[in-house]
């Protein structure tokens, strides 16, 4: 019987010879590209409101030391990118503002490229990232983000009327359709149910801009990289992990945000690339992968 050795998880005949062995190793390397970039969710992954998650500040520095390109990808729509950046700096993270790719940014580009004049259901701070309205034109669309103080009958009914009275001509733009998110007070309602309510009442199907939209992930990737060379780290099985995995990335899930493992049976946990206690544990895993 020919004995075999293991190269990571590849079984290789020990008498294969140097040429065959080199070919096998080369082929395996092509099958499992090195991780060159990490796309990292923010709220629930690196921080919860004004508190970093356990060990996240230090773990981010360790990840930078691995030579991995970093992009912070977020569906956060309560605050502008500049306010989000200031918050992260204040609580101890080291980053550049241009490393943040927000669904607000993507949605603003969508509004501009389609020359829309929207009715905005956004916070005043998030509104800073969008074009000003043209008061000489009627509203031709509705843009919905996470704006708890505007999820009232007054604002939602105005949005309904714009969509309903347009007879299908107006656009409904969902910056994202998150079901819920984590705050200091616990799990809180996201904007998704309000978007779906407007869809139900008006018959207008929304255009979803943020995660898990394929366009969002592809536009957030560093130039020149393939999805297989990138990993996504987040706290939402669907929006973060499954969205990224759908285009070929690995999706690593953390337990510090909206994902609640205690609500799942052991054999019914999300089928992601890996589930970790926190962001630091993911960095440890990536360090092991890169140093093998």
What does this entry look like structurally?
By secondary structure, the protein is of the alpha/beta class. The protein has 10 helices and 16 strands. Helix 6 (153-165) crosses helix 7. The radius of gyration is 22 Å and the shape is globular. Mean pLDDT is 89; it is low at 1-31.
Which structural class fits the helix and strand makeup? alpha/beta
Instruction: Tell me the helix content.
Output: 25-40%
Number of strands: 16
Q: Order the strands across the largest sheet as they lie in space.
A: 7-6-3-14-15-16
Main beta-sheet annotation: 6 strands, parallel
User: So how many helices?
Assistant: 10
Query: Which descriptor suits the 3D outline?
Result: globular
End-to-end separation: 29 Å
Radius of gyration: 22 Å
How much beta, percentage-wise? 15-25%
Order of helices and strands: EEHEEEHEHEHEHEHEEEHEHEHEEH
List unreliable stretches of 5+ residues: 1-31
Mean pLDDT, as a whole number?
Answer: 89
Fold topology:
Blueprint: E1 4-7, E2 10-13, H1 18-31, E3 37-40, E4 47-48, E5 51-52, H2 56-65, E6 69-74, H3 81-90, E7 100-102, H4 103-113, E8 118-121, H5 124-127, E9 141-144, H6 153-165, E10 171-174, E11 180-183, E12 186-189, H7 192-202, E13 207-208, H8 214-220, E14 230-234, H9 237-245, E15 250-254, E16 274-276, H10 279-290
Parallel strand pairs: 3-6, 3-14, 6-7, 8-9, 9-10, 10-13, 14-15, 15-16
Antiparallel strand pairs: 1-2, 4-5, 11-12
Helix pairs in contact: 2-10, 6-7
Keywords: Magnesium, Metal-binding
Family: Belongs to the HAD-like hydrolase superfamily.
Cofactor: Mg(2+)
């Amino acid at each position: 019987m020919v004995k075999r050795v293991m190269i990571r998880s590849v079984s290789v005949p020990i008498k294969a010879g140097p040429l065959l062995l080199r070919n096998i190793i080369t082929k395996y390397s092509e099958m499992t590209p090195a991780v060159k970039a990490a796309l990292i969710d923010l709220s629930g992954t690196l921080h919860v409101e004004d508190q970093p998650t356990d060990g996240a500040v230090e773990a981010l520095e360790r990840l930078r030391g691995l030579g991995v390109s970093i992009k912070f990808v977020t569906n956060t729509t309560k605050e502008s990118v500049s306010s989000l950046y200031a918050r992260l700096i204040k609580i101890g993270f080291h980053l550049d503002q241009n490393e943040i790719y927000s669904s607000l940014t993507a949605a603003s580009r969508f509004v501009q490229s389609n020359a829309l004049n929207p009715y905005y259901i956004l916070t005043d701070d998030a509104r800073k990232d969008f074009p000003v309205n043209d008061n000489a034109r009627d509203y031709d669309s509705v843009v919905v983000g996470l704006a708890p103080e505007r999820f009232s009958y007054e604002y939602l009914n105005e949005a309904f009327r714009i969509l309903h009275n347009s007879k299908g001509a107006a656009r409904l733009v969902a910056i994202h359709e998150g079901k819920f998110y984590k705050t200091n007070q616990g799990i809180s309602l996201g904007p998704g149910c309000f978007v779906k309510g407007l869809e139900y009442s008006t018959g207008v199907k929304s255009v979803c801009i943020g995660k898990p939209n394929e366009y969002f992930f592809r536009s957030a990737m560093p130039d020149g990289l393939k999805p297989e060379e990138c990993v996504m780290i987040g706290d939402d099985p669907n929006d973060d992990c499954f969205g990224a995995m759908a285009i070929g990335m690995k999706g690593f899930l953390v337990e510090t945000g909206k994902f609640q493992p205690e609500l799942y049976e052991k054999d019914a946990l999300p089928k992601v690339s890996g589930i970790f206690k926190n962001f630091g544990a993911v960095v440890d895993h990536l360090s092991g992968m890169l140093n093998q």
